[in-house]
């Protein structure tokens, strides 16, 4: 596939996603400007990131540090905001702090401490979101809903970190709208303690409308933008 063909393919995907977002915003009575689209580029090459940037995308999400670190280096000249959205082990924190502007998957106090330590060492301020578990699958990560405010307090009090808000992934089974309504309630509790923590990171390719209807501010979209072509593996 030529670069021009790939650009056209990604442009078409972006247009479809933007149309879906626009329709969902109309249905929910929301302004498109309230939403940030994060292009999730896991398993796709840095050349796709460059094409997305050329099409006006400013925020990129990754969930594996080894892949993300390399892409962030290759695309450092683009001025993008990098979002780390996968489960994060403490032994990867130093690397992630080197390029990520936002970490969506903060789900335990030990991780808060590690992020704070490395942010201070690197002279950076990292925005952190409390990941909430909306199901009982331990493999997907996330703090229990009842732990959200305490974890938010820990982030807000940690040097080098900024509390952004909350994040969740809809359960594989069940109604995503109901799950995102629960997330919205939890986000309200966090904002009650920390009024500036207004980020709700929710919604992926298959449940954008439900997320937007329930107050999402950040959408994490991969497949709908980049397609299901054979993925790139570094």
From TrEMBL:
The modification N6-(pyridoxal phosphate)lysine is found at residue 42. InterPro entries: Ala_racemase_N (IPR001608), PLP-binding_barrel (IPR029066), PyrdxlP_homeostasis (IPR011078). The keyword Cell division does not apply. Keywords: Pyridoxal phosphate. Residues 34-228 form the Alanine racemase N-terminal domain. It holds the Pfam family Ala_racemase_N. The keyword GTP-binding does not apply. Gene3D superfamilies: Alanine racemase. Pyridoxal 5'-phosphate (PLP)-binding protein, which is involved in PLP homeostasis. NCBIfam families: YggS family pyridoxal phosphate-dependent enzyme. Belongs to the pyridoxal phosphate-binding protein YggS/PROSC family. This is Pyridoxal phosphate homeostasis protein. It comes from Streptosporangium fragile.
């Amino acid at each position: 596939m030529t670069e021009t063909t790939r650009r056209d393919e990604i442009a078409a995907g972006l247009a479809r996603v933007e149309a879906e977002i626009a329709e969902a915003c109309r249905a929910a009575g929301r302004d498109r400007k309230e939403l940030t689209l994060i292009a999730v580029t896991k398993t796709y090459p840095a050349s796709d990131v460059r094409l997305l940037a050329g099409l006006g995308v400013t925020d990129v999400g990754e969930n594996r540090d080894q892949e993300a670190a390399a892409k962030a280096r290759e695309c450092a000249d683009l001025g993008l905001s990098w979002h780390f959205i996968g489960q994060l082990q403490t032994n990867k924190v130093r690397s992630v702090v080197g390029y990520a502007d936002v970490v969506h998957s903060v789900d335990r106090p030990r991780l808060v401490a590690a992020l704070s330590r490395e942010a201070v060492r690197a002279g950076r301020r990292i925005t952190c979101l409390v990941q909430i578990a909306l199901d009982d699958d331990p493999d997907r990560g996330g703090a229990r809903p009842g732990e959200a405010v305490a974890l938010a307090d820990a982030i807000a009090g940690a040097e080098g970190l900024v509390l952004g808000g909350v994040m969740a992934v809809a359960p594989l089974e069940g109604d995503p709208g109901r799950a995102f309504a629960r997330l919205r309630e939890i986000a309200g509790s966090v904002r009650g303690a920390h009024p500036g923590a207004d980020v709700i990171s929710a919604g992926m390719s298959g449940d954008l409308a439900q997320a937007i209807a329930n107050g999402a501010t950040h959408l994490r979209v991969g497949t709908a933008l980049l397609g299901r072509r054979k993925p790139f593996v570094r």
